[in-house]
Design a protein that fits this description.
Blueprint lengths: L36 H10 L14 E2 L11 H8 L9 H14 L3 E5 L2 H12 L5 E4 L4 H9 L3 E4 L20 H10 L8 E4 L12 H13 L4 E4 L3 H11 L8 H9 L4 E5 L10 E5 L2 H14 L10 H14 L2 H20 L12 E5 H4 L9 H13 L1 E2 L1 E3 L1 H4 L15 E5 L7 H16 L8 E5 L10 E4 L8
Parallel strand pairs: 1-10, 3-4, 5-6, 6-7
Antiparallel strand pairs: 2-8, 7-8, 9-12, 11-12, 13-14
Helix pairs in contact: 1-14, 2-11, 3-11, 4-5, 4-10, 6-7, 8-9, 12-16, 14-16
């Protein structure tokens, strides 16, 4: 019998929308070492103003990279225990191979210890002196492996990518006119492949649309040129396709991923990103002859074909991580946190690449520090200021990373000069994002007083930003 005392209660006239919650809970924590401004100023000076040279204990919030820095799930940790460490024929290898085949649809698979190793192996088989590799903005290790072989990376990204305020949903897209110009001006035998980077890191973590992937594939096929993917953040790219491309809003992430890779002939992957693993990478291919060539180089550089520089436990954890990475719930949680930081920075007036990418927020250093000359590296200057202010470690995606022209040895000044704040997967809370945003807001308030940057003291001949040594532009020294 109904309770007569409740008969007068009317149904709800409205219901409060429940707030978003992360799709995981915390099982273990790691203590963060706090520091003072005086300590941080001394540490960064001792590190020659290179944030890569800081120790982890000297960093409060580490946004240097999302590569290998994520937190693994309980199921991934369980896979570690089941890892098969056999030198040849490991069961963990079979598990990883079948997972990659299922997700990407490519029959041939080679494990490597990380993404740049996959590039080294595959490019050893495909790239020769004088070759040209067109694509959307190539990342640092990719360009390094190309130029090390005396070939050239040709950036064919759409122009909208280089205006941080333009609201374009797929700034990672390749400009088909630019691409066809390369096809027409370079002999076919000098173009071993077109490279589609998903998402496109150097242009701000920007996605590539399915329509563009298909159009690039069709154009390349017309000229008889293979298409390869840099697949480090393929799942995040699929998430953006689902949410920004109307024809795919009712498709699953797995379905979108399969359709993406059906447009290509192979992929390299740094699995330390969307594999949610601390170490690992792979090559996946459609062509058996390319696979056979790559196998020889893999044995030379990485190890036997069923481990490729990885332990069995790492392969097992990676197989599980790839499965988790293509779930919508995980991707939505991960990208929502990136968006949260981006929105906080916009509230404070900080200029950032818009729309926000999938793995990081990219601060426009040229707009943030307009009085720092390009030759004094504005993005690196901002990165140093952020570290001194708060202990937050980001990374420069600008002139230092762009390196010198391999022929003229002059600095290359890219169209974008960015400070990247790469967010590790499942590691930080929104309070860490609030802390980071407040630190940048403080610097932004005094930005007009920052008018000098840094000069190079010592640099490596290629991929210099990892080991660069700098000094304040106010100091005087002889350039080494």
């Amino acid at each position: 019998m109904d309770n007569p005392r409740r008969a007068h209660i009317k149904p709800y006239l409205f219901a409060m929308e429940l707030p978003y919650i992360e799709p995981h809970k915390i099982k273990m924590v790691e203590t963060i070492h706090t520091s003072t401004l005086k300590e941080r100023s001394r540490w960064i000076t001792e590190a020659k103003y290179n944030l890569f040279k800081l120790t982890s204990r000297q960093v409060t919030v580490d946004l240097l990279t999302d590569s290998g820095t994520g937190a693994m799930s309980d199921r991934q940790w369980a896979e570690l225990i089941q890892g098969d460490e056999s030198y040849a024929g490991s069961a963990s290898f079979e598990k990883l191979r079948e997972t990659v085949r299922e997700l990407l649809g490519y029959p041939f698979f080679i494990p490597t210890h990380q993404g740049r190793a996959a590039e080294n192996v595959l490019f050893s088989a495909l790239v020769k002196e004088g070759d040209v590799i067109p694509g959307n903005t190539h990342f640092d290790t990719t360009k390094g492996h190309i130029e090390f072989r005396k070939a050239r990376a040709e950036d064919c990204t759409i122009d909208e990518a280089f205006n941080t305020t333009t609201d374009h949903p797929f700034k990672g897209n390749i400009d088909l006119n630019k691409l066809e110009t390369v096809f027409k001006s370079v002999p076919r035998e000098k173009i071993p492949f077109v490279l589609i980077t998903v998402t496109c890191n150097s242009s701000g973590g920007q996605p590539v649309s399915m329509a563009n992937i298909k159009a690039v594939s069709a154009l390349a096929k017309q000229y008889g040129i293979r298409v390869l993917f840099d697949a480090a953040r393929f799942a995040e790219n699929a998430y953006f396709i689902k949410n920004r491309e109307k024809d795919y809003e009712n498709r699953t992430i797995r379905e979108i991923v399969l359709e993406m890779f059906a447009c290509g002939d192979g992929a390299t992957m740094s699995a330390k990103k969307d594999g949610i693993a601390n170490m690992g990478g792979f090559i996946a291919l459609r062509e058996e002859d390319v696979y056979q060539q790559a196998c020889t180089f893999n044995i030379m550089f990485e190890g036997y074909l069923t481990y490729g520089g990885m332990s069995g436990r790492d392969m097992a954890a990676l197989a599980q991580g790839l499965k988790e990475a293509v779930t919508y719930e995980y991707l939505h949680g991960r990208i929502s946190q990136v968006r949260y930081l981006g929105n906080k920075l916009l509230e404070y007036g900080v200029p950032v690449q818009q729309p926000f990418g999938g793995h990081a927020i990219f601060v426009d250093a040229l707009k943030f520090l307009p009085y720092v000359p390009r030759k004094e590296f504005p993005a690196q200057t901002l990165a140093v200021e952020l570290y001194k202010e708060s202990g937050v470690r980001g990374v420069e995606i600008g002139t230092l990373l762009a390196d010198r022209d391999p022929v003229t040895r002059r600095n290359r000044y890219p169209k974008l000069e960015l400070l990247r704040l790469a967010i590790p997967r499942r590691v930080y809370t929104d309070n860490h994002m609030n802390y980071t945003a407040a630190a940048l807001a403080n610097i932004y308030a005094r930005r007009n007083f920052i008018q000098q940057g840094y000069r190079i003291v010592r640099e490596a001949p290629i991929m210099r930003h990892f080991t660069i040594e700098l000094e304040s532009a106010e100091e005087k020294t002889v350039l080494c």
